[in-house]
Sequence to fold (335 residues):
Amino acid sequence: MDTFIPSSAKAHEPGLVAASVYAQGRRLRDIAIEEAGAWAGKDGSIVWIGLCEPSIGLLRRVQAQLHLHELAIEDASKAHQYPKVEQYGDALFVVARTAQVIDGRIAFGETHIFVGKGYVVSVRHGPSSSYRAVREQVESCPASLARGEDYILYSILDFIVDNYAPVVESVQGEVDALEDGVLNKTLSESAVDRLYSLRRELLRLRKTVAPLVDVCRRLEHADEELIEPQMQPLFRDVSDHIRRVQEDIDSLREVLAFAFEASLMAGQAQQNAITRKLAAWAAILAVPTAVAGIYGMNFQNMPELQWKYGYYAVIGVIAVLCGWLYLRFKRLGWL
Fold:
């Protein structure tokens, strides 16, 4: 059995993050892509290759070593796949969507995972947390790593689902701020735009998360030749985590819907208040306008025109009527 060899000769090939071989739960050494096939064919050894936006040439080299299915390679070379799990002979091809907050927006990526006898290959596209943390965590527990390829697949999926939580928490903070703004005052136009944007992003996040429930369910009930029976409950645990994330997303979307409705109602109430105020002032101003219109007709036989105090009397009547209307509207809450 080979002993551990430090990773001094690790290749810095574009697209290749890590390529290591494990046996009995312990890392033996880093390997070149051209060594993957030989190591994967040895009993008790597992080759774990991590790729990040690899070139088609690199994927073809991995395919040649591990005999990956052509259709799966075509899918892995493109970053527009729907979350799914497919079986190719005695191998599995799993697609999961990732999410990450970048500059205040939710960005989405994909991870494609090949799992077969003696190997696991993960291919990342787009925004995603590095799986180095998964590798370090698994390597720190040889007993768990010794459970084989299925455990590595579970660890990657669990890591992807766990990384949904920070995204949801980030949105939660914005939603709380928007909700407080609605309760205190009417939302500004920019806040309403952000509300729409958050609802749209949450809908995309839900479409990203929801299909993984079916993926994990299929892995949980997969044939013994594909997934070890003792490993199947772990995928049920991942499904439970996904459902909790779904519930949080649905709750946030309901809060945003309430915030929008409340903002709309507050805006309508504000418009009604302005309309009442304008109507009240229009009624008050109608009094002097009407009086001025009467005395602007220039008729000769208007007794008040010859009265010494006529002007003062008319001004007084206007002032009294306007004052009475003002007090009346004030009591009604229109002013």
